[in-house]
Specification:
The chain has five helices and eleven strands; from the N terminus they run E-E-E-H-E-E-H-E-H-E-E-H-E-E-H-E. With 204 residues, it is α+β, with helices and mostly antiparallel strands. It folds into two domains: 128 residues, Ribosomal Protein S5, domain 2; 65 residues, ACT domain (Alpha-Beta Plaits), CATH 3.30.70.260. Helix 2 packs parallel to helix 3. The longest helix has 19 residues.
Length: 204
């Protein structure tokens, strides 16, 4: 299996509404990168809808897509969080959170009705928000002499590397994210510049 070089995510928040037999389902989708961000967003939605019957959600984080969580928030097990996550996964997205707020309308929808409602609300919000393709980057640290800054920055710019942090002085320290797709080319070109030290960073 070829290692993935990019992933799909969303760029900005969006909202959509779905109604069924008097119940109202309002879906909020957000780009998130950390569990802290998720907690913050969920809190915002709960503050905005304190009287809602349920605040169900699902999220998936990370380029390996291994970090995820679902919550039915009091709805019958498997009727809310899983269908929401199913919509995130059907679009192959990551670093995304969807919260669906429900206002009960007096009529019980039953398990199939609930699954359909949460799935539909999540699907609708994903339709209104643009998805974007991002390259998976590997962090590297580059040490060099200030006199070589132009050569280094030219490579960084031409290969669309992300500058994560930089310390410029007589000796410079640059932490960059290099896209997996161009890793070999970038390392070849950086190592080709004299007296430059390039090493992989352990943390992002």
């Amino acid at each position: 299996m070829q290692e993935q070089e990019f992933y799909y995510t969303v760029e900005k928040p969006a909202t959509a509404e779905y109604k069924d037999r008097g119940s109202k389902f309002i879906a909020y989708a957000y780009p998130i990168n950390t569990i802290e961000e998720f907690k913050q967003r969920l809190e915002e939605v709960k503050k905005e809808h304190p009287k809602a019957t349920h605040h169900c959600f699902a999220y998936r984080i990370g380029t390996d897509k291994n970090t995820f969580r679902v919550s039915d928030d009091g709805e019958p097990s498997g009727t809310a969080g899983k269908p929401i996550l199913g919509q995130i996964d059907s679009k192959e997205l990551t670093n995304v959170l969807i919260v669906v707020v429900r206002y009960f309308g007096g009529t019980l929808l039953g398990v199939p009705g609930l699954i359909n409602a949460y799935k539909s609300a999540a699907s609708m919000v994903l339709q209104v928000m643009p998805t974007t393709q991002r390259f998976i980057e590997v962090p590297y640290i580059v040490h060099f002499d200030y006199s070589q800054i132009n050569d280094i920055m030219m490579v960084v710019k031409q290969l669309n590397c992300t500058v994560i942090e930089q310390e410029m002085g007589l000796f410079c320290h640059l932490k960059i994210g290099i896209s997996k797709a161009r890793l070999q080319e970038a390392l070849y070109r950086l190592n080709d510049i004299r007296n430059v030290e390039v090493k992989k960073s352990e943390s992002r």
